[in-house]
Amino acid sequence: MDRSNFYTQLCKILSKEQILCGEPMSRHTTFRVGGPADFFLQPKLEQVADVVALCQNGQMPYYVVGNGSNLLAGDVGVRGVVLSLSRPASGISVEGDVLTAQAGALLSQAAAAALNAGLGGMEFAAGIPGSVGGAVVMNAGAYGGEIKDIIRQATVLAQDGQVQRLSGTELELSYRHSCIPGRRMVVLDAQFQLQPKPQAEVRSLMEDLKQRRAEKQPLEYPSAGSTFKRPKGYFAGKLIMDAGLSGFTVGGAQVSSKHCGFVVNKGGATAADILQLIQHVQHTVQEKFGVALEMEVKCIGAFASNDGSGQPGQL
């Protein structure tokens, strides 16, 4: 389906205000880089199935994003559709000790709602900048807590257009992994099983974790959080530091000297700078220590004019 016809069909599902053409991805990623997306869409949850079906029927590639906090979008841009579930799908509700959050809600917002309801178990998520949908997809975690520890079930849109509810076991959650990407599903919402806990205790733990993050992580610069997954038996940051790469730069991208597990945008970085730096880190660590560092950050779009790299995901 050509772009003009695709746009016409989109307008039958979404309002024109929900459709942005040529929208810079730099406005929607925490790295603050990325070229224009052909179509940047902001559907409500009840519109997602129709939009996905249109993309599939029209053979239009699509990518699902939340807060863009685990995402590197190419400078040339993203051909096809970026489905943003941030603002239109960010509702949060609490019933008893169960918190339900739509996919676009920020983890920090969900953790704050748990605090207000006097519920514990979600404190680890308060400082993670991602969305609930993205957190389920990658089983986000920090400071000893993971989504798999608290999730009760997730509502997903399957590739065949059916809405399903998957338990934590059915989601196949493990370290930075779920079955969602491989099965091309879209997370719509998630339920979390929490426990009653005095607000003062919940707040105290959140403040402690906040302080620890501020002391150890380069929060003053745009980044996508931890750039690499933790290799078995090692810590990525220590390997990178021991390889002599602390502070190493490519253009405006830098290996943080505060925490070598972070690649940051020091100012004016391009996506190509960041990707080149990541690849240099991977090559150097492999050469010096024989350890392969796997990216935790996901790439979408084109990084050069003849590049079609990228992978679907909910990030």
Please give a handful of descriptors for the protein shown.
8 helices; alpha+beta; 315 residues; disordered C terminus; four-stranded mixed beta sheet
Summarize this entry quickly.
The protein is 27% helix and 23% strand.
Q: Explain this structure to me?
A:
This protein is of the alpha+beta class and 315 residues long. The protein has eight helices and 18 strands. It has helices at 3-10, 45-57, 107-116, 132-138, 147-150, 199-216, 236-242, 271-289; strands spanning 19-24, 36-41, 62-65, 71-73, 78-84, 92-95, 98-102, 119-120, 141-142, 145-146, 151-157, 163-167, 186-193, 195-196, 249-250, 253-255, 263-265, 298-300. The strands form six sheets. Strands 6-7-13-11-12 form a five-stranded antiparallel beta sheet. The protein is globular, with a radius of gyration of 19 Å.
Structural class: alpha+beta
What's the overall average pLDDT, rounded? 93
Q: What is the string of helix and strand elements? A: HEEHEEEEEHEHEEHEEEEHHEEEHE
Distance between the termini: 26 Å
| Number of DSSP helical runs | 8
Number of strands: 18
Q: What percent of the residues sit in helical stretches (DSSP H or I)?
A: 25-40%
Low-confidence region ranges: 306-315
**Which strand-content bin applies to the residues?**
15-25%
Task: Give the arrangement of secondary structure elements.
Blueprint: H1 3-10, E1 19-24, E2 36-41, H2 45-57, E3 62-65, E4 71-73, E5 78-84, E6 92-95, E7 98-102, H3 107-116, E8 119-120, H4 132-138, E9 141-142, E10 145-146, H5 147-150, E11 151-157, E12 163-167, E13 186-193, E14 195-196, H6 199-216, H7 236-242, E15 249-250, E16 253-255, E17 263-265, H8 271-289, E18 298-300
Parallel strand pairs: 2-5, 3-5, 4-18
Antiparallel strand pairs: 1-2, 6-7, 7-13, 8-14, 9-10, 11-12, 11-13, 15-16, 16-17
